Known about the structure:
Number of domains: 2
Structural class: mainly alpha
Number of helices: 20
Largest sheet: none
Number of strands: 0
Order of helices and strands: HHHHHHHHHHHHHHHHHHHH
Strand content: under 5%
Shape: elongated
Radius of gyration: 22 Å
Amino acid sequence: MEMDMEAEEFHGIFQFAADIDDDDDFFAQTVSKEERAMERMKKENSIATYQPKFLTGGYNIPIEKISNIFFGSKNGPNAVKQAIEWYYSVMKMKDNNILTKDQEQNIKLYKEISYQYIKDCCDKYLECNQSKGKFINEREILEIAIRCLVQMDRINEIEPYVERLDPKEPGLFAFSGKCYYLLKQYKKSLQIHQKYCDQRRNDYMSWLDMSNIFKDINNIVMNKIFTIKCEQIPDLYRLLYIICFVKAYKLLKANKLIKKTGYWDTVISKELNPLQKIMDENPNYEEIVEQTLTITPENLDKKINDFNNLLNKLFTEEVKNLCLSNDQIQWIIKHGKATIRESDLNDDENETSCLNIY
């Protein structure tokens, strides 16, 4: 029973999606589900015999039968959830053309399974759960629905699902932050990432995501400035981008030195090289970070006010999404220094979090 619970947990948040595809557009996954399961079980001194569902078979519940099965027994909702997770795994395998003809023939709903079909199944599950009084946590189903919409390039439709997420676990903070970034709700995305980093301060991916927020806003402003030939060139968000990027780079590089597992070797070999290339092309980045982090509160307030005034001058409706709060910017200055202790990187809780997310 204990092994089953562990397996179910590993299928939970952040696990069922993108495990088949090493180049998932939404969340970079560099290690297969089986490898991550084995790594985690070795860490917890478990017997590493667990075989993920996508290797041993799946569940086949046609969408028209979801309601009957959901309400039919105590385990009905879980059976439907497992079927939806199975469909998503199959769809990722279809995308990557890794199934043999025999394997395709053994999947009863193979021809019907698509991102739209899976999303419709998610909606049916959510409808049943609502009518039952929402007695089951919906987070995995909401996440799959969001991922399906992203895969279909329908980003503008994910917001209702994202708003229904109730992040109580660190992995969901990171997921929600990425979703709001896709929706270009930069302020909310940054707020969630910072809340996540308060719990998992050595997650390089979240710092990389925050760097992209500042880079995007800075690029929008710079493009507008060059269009109207504005003489005032603010550098605040460029500096914040560099701080976040350098911290992400240093966290990842530190993990390369400290963590001696096959899992991290695989992750780092793929993730570090692009960051290293940018650092090599910008040898002054670390010096810029050191200078910026010593800025006085008065000078920081002035930079923030100057940038916000420029936003109000250049933009109208977009300004709410582009204007970040003073507290959020001060948080970056406070936590931007990449002081990394070996004890932090070897901490069991941080290690487990990294395994869950990546």
